[in-house]
Amino acid sequence: MKKVAVIALGGNALLRGDQAGTIDEQEQNTTDTLENLVHLIREGYELVITHGNGPQVGNILMRNDAGEMIYKIPQMPLDICVADSQGGIGYMIERMLRNVLKKHNIDKEIVTLVTQVLVENDDPAFQEPTKRVGKIYSGEEADKIAGEKGWIFKEDKKRADGWRRVVPSPKPVGIMNERVVETLVRQGTIVIAAGGGGIPVYIDEEQRVRPSEAVIDKDSASSLLASQINADEFYILTDVSYVYINYGTPQEEKKEFLNYNDTVKYLEQGMFGEGDMAPKIHACLDFIKRGGRKSVITEAFKLEDKSYGTKITMEYED
Amino acid sequence: MKKVAVIALGGNALLRGDQAGTIDEQEQNTTDTLENLVHLIREGYELVITHGNGPQVGNILMRNDAGEMIYKIPQMPLDICVADSQGGIGYMIERMLRNVLKKHNIDKEIVTLVTQVLVENDDPAFQEPTKRVGKIYSGEEADKIAGEKGWIFKEDKKRADGWRRVVPSPKPVGIMNERVVETLVRQGTIVIAAGGGGIPVYIDEEQRVRPSEAVIDKDSASSLLASQINADEFYILTDVSYVYINYGTPQEEKKEFLNYNDTVKYLEQGMFGEGDMAPKIHACLDFIKRGGRKSVITEAFKLEDKSYGTKITMEYED
Known about the structure:
Chain A is α/β, with parallel strands linked by helices.
């Protein structure tokens, strides 16, 4: 039986922070990243690809703001903007992957799903919005919008009088279409799903699906998806090749293998950057705890080498 | 064996011309439209839902323009804008349909696919762009952009010195993921696909999938999809309940039934509005010619009544 892997593309896989965000840049980065997945496909893996949407949905939010300002076009809520970004990015990944596979003479079907991800409306995250989205406003503008729309703002430390909307980042508790994803991937189709952590929705008291003005951590949603479809392995492709402990100290140590208990211990000791590596480690551990065999954190181009990245498993292997 | 129907939602199914385009309006219209599909589901139909994207992709294009103007965010090409609209609209339809089915105690899985549709790069439509997209420019602006980006403009008859970009509307020749759509729908899943006529792509001389700066007629793509998945029936839901011949003359006649040959004859006689009803008739006839059993043109709310709409079949039924 073939192995199923969920691959979460993030960081500079699609768009680097130093780039303007043109479609040419995005297509080139995406192709470079996807080239590396060929190694996994040749090894016999069936793949589900998830992806971040930070820069893209940021741009969509800014365009909504500008469109209202100049043309009085009603702004779309956050859920629609995330859904838009799934369409655009998912299509781009699918098209570039079709071309990469063609180049390597690999014949596989690829399909892109628009994915809703369930959160709980009483998730404590709703009491404390933390995730910055959209444009930077002046204090005066922020006050005005807060009054009009009920948005919550936090100061942006990077510039004077800069305020950004913050939204909650609740925990994903269910993936819509998970059975469809599992069926398709086990039939040999590459599935692109749960982009940007999924479109956040919750079930209200009348059992209706309602949009949630929130964003879900992409790695957390991807980890849950991996568990729900009974994937064997979960990969987070990011901008570092390995996880380190005691990073930047004389005791700095690159970790090629980590077991569950040691990783929990390092996490509790604050060995991993809170806003950055710690959420990735949590996502990897969650996958293992729920029965997944192996989580991997690495850079895309490391996939060509069997010794790539940091492997997290329940126990150290001999 | 259950019957499969492809339902193309268009016109005022999602957003009426007299509305501002807020998300509340769109969600309400969508729910009202989808309520009517319950009749078909209760009759045992398996459904594929396609949809237009005119107002939505128009707004996305305008926001791209505004975002570049105010925030210098690079504009996305037309294919990405169409893909974005598939994500946002597809998600909205899926979520509203989940709630409609829940209300009626119908338990069915629903999935939304981001769909590329193949065109031929030497389609004669590329010689004569006809489809107006995006904002209205002044002649001076249009000249400048034509020089910079190579866009083609035509005068907008509705206002003085108003120019709009025109893009080709090539014929769809293939639907990506058609086998996936067919498999899912025959397993009982409702599939939302080919939104906005699909993201237009073509295969270049090196067998790569490339984006096409074009838009595909939604009814034409939906008709092709219906044929490719061997659907039994094809419905175009629009803003008229019936097709008429000699419309607006003393000989005006409402047609509840039409056979293939008579419809071709009426079409050749120019009985149907060129920019409006004629393309819908063409899409219906194409479906019949390729072996489909029945095409229907009507309004969504007519679906509750067995005698709804204009039915086009190869031969008149007794």
